């Protein structure tokens, strides 16, 4: 899939990946969660999504309100998530959510870098 290939390319750019990890950590902490795991994330899309998925599984078992806060903080709405989940019916909710989070945060980082805010 071209979209996944583009994401992998952006993640391999060291400066963008560092900004991605920083933004992910900031969003987790902004939602009142521990974001320290972001510092050790690999720059591989598949491994990154697996690590994030594990964090989300743990989070969803602890608190649905924390998960809602995280989604709000990252700016992922229910409609976007449901749409993506329909395309990935065979995957777990957390796996789909991990991919959506990676794509949204990378989008935020690229837009900030491009438009300089």
Q: Give the proportion of residues in helices.
A: over 70%
Query: Structural class of the secondary elements?
Result: mainly alpha
- Number of helical regions: 6
Find the count of extended strands (DSSP E, 2+ residues). 0
Q: In this structure, how is the largest beta sheet organized?
A: none
Mean pLDDT: 87
Care to give the gist of this entry?
This protein is an all-alpha fold and 117 residues long.
Overall description:
The protein is an all-alpha fold and 117 residues long. The protein has one domain (2-111). 77% of the residues lie in helices and 0% in strands. It contains 6 helices and no strands. It has helices at 2-12, 14-30, 45-62, 64-74, 78-87, 93-115. It is globular and about 35 Å long. The model has no long low-confidence stretch (mean pLDDT 87).
List keywords for this structure.
mainly alpha
Q: Secondary structure elements and their pairing?
A:
Elements: H1 2-12, H2 14-30, H3 45-62, H4 64-74, H5 78-87, H6 93-115
Helix pairs in contact: 2-6, 3-6
């Amino acid at each position: 899939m071209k979209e996944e290939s583009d994401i992998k390319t952006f993640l391999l750019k060291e400066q963008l990946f560092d900004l991605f990890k920083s933004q992910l950590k900031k969003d987790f902490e902004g939602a009142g969660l521990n974001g320290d795991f972001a510092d050790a994330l690999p720059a591989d899309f598949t491994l990154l999504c697996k690590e994030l998925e594990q964090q989300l599984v743990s989070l969803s078992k602890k608190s649905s309100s924390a998960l809602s806060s995280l989604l709000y903080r990252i700016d992922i709405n229910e409609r976007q998530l449901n749409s993506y989940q329909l395309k990935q019916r065979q995957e777990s909710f957390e796996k789909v959510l991990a991919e959506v989070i990676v794509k949204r945060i990378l989008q935020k980082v690229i837009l900030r870098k491009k438009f300089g805010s």
